[in-house]
Amino acid sequence: MGNPILQTFPLGVPWQTQDPFLFCVYHWDHYPKGDGNFGPDPALLEGRNLGNDFDPTQKWRMYHGQTIPGFPYHPHRGFETITIVNKGFCDHSDSLGAAGRFGEGDVQWMTAGRGVQHSEMFPLLHTDKDNPLELFQIWLNLPKASKFVEPHFKMLWYEDIPVIKEENASIKVIAGNYKGTQANKPTPDSWAASEENEVAIWNIQVDPNTEFTLPKATAEVARTLYFYEGSEIFFGERKVNPNFGIALDPSQDTVLKVGGEKAHLLMLQGKPIDEPVAKYGPFVMNTEQEIQQAMEEYRLTQFGGWPWPHADNVHGADKGRFAKYPDGTLVEKN
Asked: Can you give the residue ranges of the Pirin C-terminal domain (predicted)?
C-alpha cells in the first residue's frame, strides 16, 4: 500500500475544495442567551462591524445579520448548497415561498438551478441558556446541462440520516454509500443523484487512541478529508494536526490512527465535473458572459421576488423543526 496523502493544507475561510465541490465553510459559534427577539443582547453588539461581522477572534459572529445572526436574503444560481446543522438551528425562507426550521443534526439540500433567493438565519431561541451553533455549508457544482433546472430543496431529517456505529467510530452518511449503507436521495437534479458520480459526504468521529479505515472508492474521484477538531491523526508515520485538510488517493483504503482526543472529520468526495467554472459571489456558471447574464436577470426579476416581511426572516418562537415546501406541503417534526 502506497502513501495515501496527495497534499495537506491549512483550513482557511472557506476551506479549500476539489471539483465537483466549490466551497466549504465551518461555523462554530458560542452564541449567548437570546434577548427574546432571536438575537443577542443589543449591548453585546456595540462596536461590532454589523453586516460584515466575520471576525475569527470573536467567540461568535453576526455574519451579515444586523440584529439576528445569519445571512439575510441573497441569490444563488448554477450550483447547490448542502447545509449540515449539528448544533443549534437555521431558519430558511426563500423566493419560492418555501420555509423551514432545521437543526440538531438535520441537513438541508438545495439546488439553486436557474435561480432562487433565500435567507439563512440563526435564531437564538433559548433565552435561559446559551445557543451554540455548529454548521457546515458545502457548495456542490452543477454541470452545464443542469445550470437552469428548476430550484428544489429537500430536508434530510436527522432521524432519517444513516449513522453507522463501528467499534471505534461513528459515520454520518449524508451522501453516498458507506460499506453498503446508502444515504438518502439528494434533490433530483443533483450531481450526487447519479451513483456513477460517487459523491460522498461523511461526517466522521473516531475515538482517541484507535484506528479507522476509510474505504477506497470505485471510480475516478477527488477525495478530501478535513480534520477540524481533535489533537492529531497519523497516516503511517505522517502526523497531521487539526485544522488541516488532506487530499487523498481514493484508489486505496486509507488507515488513520487517532491521538489522545477524539478526531472529528468531514469527507467530501465526487467525480469531477471537469467543466470551466466562472464564479462571481453567489453565481456559478461556465463563462463570464453567463455570469453577466445572471446578474442582469437578477437585477430585472429578483428571481421571483421576496414574499417574506423581512430580509432576515425568522419563524415564531413556538415553532419546532419544520419544512414548508413551495406546493404548500407542510412537514412538522418534534
From this structure: 202-304
**Number of CB atoms found within 10 A of residue 131's CB:** 23
Q: Which three cell numbers stand for residue 316?
A: 415564531
Q: Domain of residue 226: give its range.
A: 1-15+162-273
Question: Are 141 and 117 contacting, i.e. CB atoms less than 8 angstroms apart?
Answer: no
Residue 106 and residue 203 in contact, taking contact as beta carbons nearer than 8 Å: no
Which CATH number does the domain housing residue 154 bear?
2.60.120.10
| CA-to-CA dists, residue 214 to 179, 198, 224, 255, 264, angstroms | 10, 15, 12, 6, 14
Residue 115 · residue 75 · CB < 8 Å: yes
For residues 69 and 206, membership in a common domain is answered with no
d(CA 253, CA 249): 9
Closest C-alpha among 193, 158, 203 to residue 323: 158
- Residues 213-266 pLDDT 10s: 999 998 899 999 999 999 999 999 999 999 999 999 999 999 999 999 999 999
